């Protein structure tokens, strides 16, 4: 403690202590809003964990979307190094969310059952940010827009995203601009449809993997996308295993069959050719 700190009880190691007229940490981060947004509905102690786990996931989803929109713009502009950096960041965020399931797994079945009657029909299934992430990665499904009211901002965003080329579509357009022979109907397709494997795309990525020195940037892009999809698959897997651990085979609050629905989602492949080509290497 400096002599000054001893003299003035409101001073600590030279730190600024008076924020009546300056922006503080809490002001900058909007902590008053964030930290007053937890409203447990049940008398159960464990509901706070349930709420905060979902809220933090939504914050990370917000950042992932922020990054992925920039990735797509960079791919379109042919600016690969910044896109690589952002893709790496998104994959690490996803990894972190994979580990976050360990915290939620401390919620036991009786603890969850005490909360469940208070959740109504609310479910992560209605997460518009999650759906936007799926769409921007190419897992399009127009039917799921119906969960959101037509006049809302979420609906508008999802509808726009449904009609836009995904990040993977942009990567394929980049392959074409780099001189690869990509089928015309793959380059101008109905963007509202989910990604479907295409032979010309597979052949192009295969050439990239067979001559990495020649196509280093595309090779790096492919591996960054594989990294991201791998992390996403782990997230889906941890979700379904945590759900099974906590609610068994009960139906979901969102109305699906629960675990069997989530298991079906494990079959989703975001970037099909990047995985199928590996057999040929
Ligand atoms: C104990 C905690 C949890 C349980 C029991 C649970 C259960 C479920 C179930 C059963 C579904 C299927 C839809 C339904 O019928 O409700 C679902 C979907 C979903 N949940 Fe969870 N969940 C939990 C935690 C979380 C967390 C922390 C997140 C993070 C945001 C999350 C995000 C999602 C998403 C995005 C979907 C939609 C998946 C898709 O359609 O592919 N869940 N959840």
From TrEMBL:
<feature type="binding site">
    <location>
        <position position="253"/>
    </location>
    <ligand>
        <name>substrate</name>
    </ligand>
</feature>
<feature type="binding site">
    <location>
        <position position="112"/>
    </location>
    <ligand>
        <name>substrate</name>
    </ligand>
</feature>
<comment type="function">
    <text>Heme-dependent dioxygenase that catalyzes the oxidative cleavage of the L-tryptophan (L-Trp) pyrrole ring and converts L-tryptophan to N-formyl-L-kynurenine. Catalyzes the oxidative cleavage of the indole moiety.</text>
</comment>
<keyword id="KW-0223">Dioxygenase</keyword>
<dbReference type="Pfam" id="PF03301">
    <property type="entry name" value="Trp_dioxygenase"/>
</dbReference>
<dbReference type="GO" id="GO:0019442">
    <property type="term" value="P:L-tryptophan catabolic process to acetyl-CoA"/>
</dbReference>
<protein>
    <recommendedName>
        <fullName>Tryptophan 2,3-dioxygenase</fullName>
        <ecNumber>1.13.11.11</ecNumber>
    </recommendedName>
</protein>
<keyword id="KW-0408">Iron</keyword>
<feature type="binding site" description="axial binding residue">
    <location>
        <position position="239"/>
    </location>
    <ligand>
        <name>heme</name>
    </ligand>
</feature>
<dbReference type="GO" id="GO:0046872">
    <property type="term" value="F:metal ion binding"/>
</dbReference>
<dbReference type="GO" id="GO:0004833">
    <property type="term" value="F:L-tryptophan 2,3-dioxygenase activity"/>
</dbReference>
<comment type="pathway">
    <text>Amino-acid degradation; L-tryptophan degradation via kynurenine pathway; L-kynurenine from L-tryptophan: step 1/2.</text>
</comment>
<dbReference type="GO" id="GO:0019441">
    <property type="term" value="P:L-tryptophan catabolic process to kynurenine"/>
</dbReference>
<keyword id="KW-0479">Metal-binding</keyword>
<keyword id="KW-0349">Heme</keyword>
<dbReference type="GO" id="GO:0020037">
    <property type="term" value="F:heme binding"/>
</dbReference>
<keyword id="KW-0823">Tryptophan catabolism</keyword>
<feature type="binding site">
    <location>
        <position position="116"/>
    </location>
    <ligand>
        <name>substrate</name>
    </ligand>
</feature>
<keyword id="KW-0560">Oxidoreductase</keyword>
<dbReference type="InterPro" id="IPR017485">
    <property type="entry name" value="Trp_2-3-dOase_bac"/>
</dbReference>
<dbReference type="InterPro" id="IPR004981">
    <property type="entry name" value="Trp_2_3_dOase"/>
</dbReference>
<dbReference type="InterPro" id="IPR037217">
    <property type="entry name" value="Trp/Indoleamine_2_3_dOase-like"/>
</dbReference>
<feature type="binding site">
    <location>
        <begin position="50"/>
        <end position="54"/>
    </location>
    <ligand>
        <name>substrate</name>
    </ligand>
</feature>
<comment type="similarity">
    <text>Belongs to the tryptophan 2,3-dioxygenase family.</text>
</comment>
<comment type="subunit">
    <text>Homotetramer.</text>
</comment>
